[in-house]
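Subject: for your reference before the review

Hello V.,

The reviewers asked for a structural picture of the protein, and I figured it would be easier to keep everything in one thread rather than splitting it across files. Below is the amino acid sequence we used in the manuscript, unchanged from the supplementary table.
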Amino acid sequence: MKTVGILGGFGPETTAKFYISIINKNRGLKRLSHPNILIHNAPVPFKLEEDAVKNAKNIDKILPFLINGIRDLQDKVEFIVIPCNTVHIFIKELRKESKVPVISIIEETVNKIKSKQFKRVGLLATPKTIKERLFDEKLREIGVKLVRPNKINQKMISKLIQWLLKGHKTAKMNLEFSKVVKNLQKAGVEAIILGCTDLQLLNRNGFSIELIDTLDVLADSTVKALVN
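And here is what came back from the structure prediction:
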């Protein structure tokens, strides 16, 4: 079995859940051992993290932390995954830096949507992911229309992500999340992409629409890549 490197820390709780997800999915396939996993938890300053998530500012200052993570992992693993959508604005730079393949959470999610044959999907993500249109072109290439939240709902999603990164989870947060999901449903989408991996920390039960968890998609791809 191959060794995978996880470049994490955005945020740490999501990285931990991603690790556990890989372990459980691998166990479910009844393989002979647990996978060999190395984690580099990027020590991004809290203020910089908040600027990037809440205001889509200073995100370029995160790149050196990512490059250090790639350099730390690449000689010890056979491929690398990054359980964060927003930092995939740097995927070209990171793949250029890396000696080993870097699997893209964006590309894997688009492949999932293609396999489901959806034609109109919603997106919940950080302001930077929305602004940089990380999903737009690849979805357009497969004939999928992308629907974004209105300004009020996007502001709420940004706040929810920021609170989650600080370790908060409350009933009110789940209620606000539910309101945003239902508003996207009213826009006629067939499914909704959870385009920030921290959103999977909220309650996702009881919805009548499919929520595509990008973290789960990447975990599936990682488990598959371990033996391919």
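For the response letter, the relevant points are probably these. Residues 106-213 form a domain with the Rossmann fold fold (CATH 3.40.50.1860). Residues 12-28 form the longest helix (17 residues).

Happy to draft the paragraph if you're swamped.

O.
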